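Hey, can you fold this?
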Amino acid sequence: MDLTHIELLILDVDGVMTDGRIMTGADGESTKRFYVQDGCAIKLWQRSGGVVAILSGRGCDAVDHRAGELGIQHVHMGVLNKLEKYEAILESTGKGDGATAYIGDDLPDLGPMERCALPVAVANAVGTVKRASRYVTRRAGGCGAVAEVVELILRKQGRWSRDGLAGV
């Protein structure tokens, strides 16, 4: 699997950056649980020159907050047509399909996954998404799946060391 050209990592949220459970309080506000190792890996990816985008079918203030903490500038929530927004992300970042990895878990993720160079399904993804992927993580969404993918790509690119990034 040649991953040397991957520069853009697009992430779904529910089921990928989180475990897919939605907690809603009495006031109607949703909260999310994010995995700290995924956040660390996203920062390593950015330090290595990689770009990260979030593409989610749902909107949530917690996602905006987490994206801000991680310095993710390309955040698209409440998206009904993920393929259309995927194309907009490529245009705004100047990256093409061949430079893009997409991590998903459910049927709305199939459009971008069919276009990108590295379609990834998390371990807890639905079967159709797993079959459409080139790589299925060992870890579940919200439990280090993003970190696993970042490490895989950086290792294949020769930019991973025991301490994180080689030469960065």
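Oh, and this one too while you're at it.
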Amino acid sequence: MHAEGLAVVGQAGLQAMEEAGWEPDVVGGLTMGADPIAYSMAAESWRRGRPIHAFSVRKQPKRHGTGQRIEGCFEPGARVVVVEDVITSGGSALQVCEVVKQAGGEVLGVLALVDRREGGYKAIEEGGFPVKALFTPDDLRAGSAS
């Protein structure tokens, strides 16, 4: 949630989606890890003049109000890129993909900041969703070397 980090993540996330050929209406994922990623990408898309809005998926439906799991700028029929902070088992991303599909959205792919290389990337692909990760642990270790 560092200001510079948000700017970098927004730019890198949009670039990664462009490289993947994904043109979503909205980006989002499981609250709370995906929220700053989705919001930074939405803000950067606005600055670029091609708005992509954001949404959040609750871990559990609210017990009051509408009882929805998806909050934000999601509508049935939306083209969606699911965002993740870290892929480990892939379970969170697959859960969000299922929630989005049940709500009438089309999942274009899953974009993560880090793939921990613990099987989650493959599990998401096997679930039928393209995946793109910006970094692996090796990338992060290489970046911290002095």
